[in-house]
Amino acid sequence: MIAAIVRNGFRALRRDRGALILCFVLPVAFFSIFALVFGPMSGNSTPRVNVLVVDEDRSAASERLVGGLHRERALATDTRPETKAGEPAPPEYTAATAEAAVKRGTAPVALIIPAGFGANPISFAPAAGRKPIRILHDSSNPVAAQMVAGLLQKVAMTSLSGSMADLGMRYFALASGGLTPQQRQNLESSLVRMRDQAAQRDLNGDAPASANGDNVGGLVSVEMRDIVGENKKSPMIAFYAAGIGVMFLLFTASASGGSLLDEAESGALDRILSARVSMTTLLAGKLTYSMLLACCQLTLMFLWGAAVFHLDLFTHLPGFFVMTVATSFAVASFGMLLASFSHTRAQQAAIGTLLILTMSAIGGSMFPRFLMPETMKKVGLLTFNAWAIDGYTKVFWRDEPVSHLLPQVAVLIGFGVLLFLIARRFARRWESV
Fold first, then answer.
1. Long-range contacts of 369-378 (CB under 8 A, 24+ apart)
2. φ, ψ of residue 51 in degrees (nearest 5)
3. Which of 334, 330, 321, 320 is nearest to 392 (CA)?
4. What is the signed CA dihedral for 318, 361, 382, 299, rounded to 10 degrees?
5. How far from 312 is each of 142, 233, 324, 364, 404, CA to CA, in Å?
6. CA separation, residue 75 to residues 93, 137, 185 (Å)
7. CA-to-CA distance for 1 and 7, rounded, in angstroms?
8. pLDDT tens, N- to C-terminus, the chain (433 residues)
9. Bridge partners (DSSP) listed for residue 55
10. What is the spatial distance between Cα 76 and Cα 65, in angstroms, rounded to a whole number?
11. pTM for this one?
């Protein structure tokens, strides 16, 4: 009897495609997504951090430091904006243009080497007038700035070994009361050999033998400043509201679009179509309802964020309105497509759950896209979540004007129109019944 019950259970599971998908396909899909995102994050394949480097000193020491930063595998350094095809190379970044680029989101970190750095690069002891290296960062990516600060100390140790020895000799001489001429001559000869070896490594592009990946703190003075979120009360609330909001909008749109399947199964859809209501009109009406419902959901979520978590909503109403309408239209069209493509409620629930959770995972609703490898970041652009989160980030985090939302709004509306047209195509099967 037990064997018969087991056989019946597997037969029922095989007939229920929705349960079959949720049981076997969804876990494998999620495992694959997490493996693609976090699997490469070990060894030398850790995602690189984009850093804008500005050398205001132009000394031999600062040039060696910049060269060491360029060679560091965990960093992707740029000293000038990307050259566009057919145009001359743009000028190198300055402190002002690098700061503006970080505010725009071009890179999460800018590193400014101040003038006078080469005269006293190593902070073994206090020095009058020493200016620290500035790290300007965007705290929406809290990992990048700390990573750059640690790697800067490592690069300083390996690239400025001659300066370290020179300063160490000076401090030793001051502390010990002076060196004999022979001792000074021997030390200077050693320093010359070290500089020659460092220059040869720079010429060959080789990493120094001591670069074992350990971070050593305190060799250079560093000043870190958040230039995007420093004046915001709750800087990441908008990010989470958009990410979680879009994910649940997709579930809501899927459920509301499923009313088409309920009407088809009950026979109500035939009566509606026989009452001179075209399928296009019916889909447009349900799309409008789903879109308005989504707008209300997002508005409630952001109002709650403003009331409880001090989200600065009311000074960003134009951008919020534009992004909410575009996002709601896209997710409502997704709901219509799911309903018109599926043949039963169970099938729609299974396919919808698989697609929604997958899009939320790779689109940034579950964890930030800046933690993902470059390939996964590009794949994420195929989802509503990524474009919606980018748009809301521009509005609430970067304080950009509505005109800067054109790429996100255009993609979301384009998604919506395309999915609605595909849904209308699939819905033809109800007209032929």
1. 370/108, 370/140, 370/141, 370/143, 370/144, 371/37, 371/47, 371/143, 372/37, 372/47, 373/36, 373/37, 373/40, 373/41, 373/47, 374/47, 375/36, 376/36, 376/37
2. -135, 135
3. 320
4. -20
5. 21, 8, 16, 22, 19
6. 17, 14, 39
7. 10
8. 677 767 777 777 677 666 666 666 767 766 676 666 555 555 445 567 899 999 999 888 888 888 889 988 888 899 998 888 778 888 999 999 999 999 888 888 999 999 888 777 776 555 545 678 899 988 777 788 888 888 888 888 777 665 555 555 555 555 555 556 665 666 566 555 655 555 555 445 444 433 333 333 457 888 888 887 666 666 567 777 888 888 888 888 888 888 888 888 888 887 887 777 788 888 888 899 999 999 998 899 889 888 888 888 888 999 999 999 999 999 999 999 998 888 888 778 888 888 888 888 888 888 778 777 778 888 889 998 999 999 998 888 888 899 999 999 999 999 999 999 999 999 888 876 5
9. 113
10. 15
11. 0.71
Tokens 């505010």, residue?
103
Q: How many residues does the chain have?
A: 433
The amino acid present at 91, given as its one-letter code, is: P
- Tally of CA atoms within 13 A in the half-sphere of 35 that contains its CB: 6
Fold that domain 48-226 belongs to in CATH:
abc type-2 transporter like fold (3.40.1710)
Token pair listed for 333: 């069209």
Domain boundaries, the chain: 16-39+232-431, 48-226
Assigned token pair, 391: 């748009």
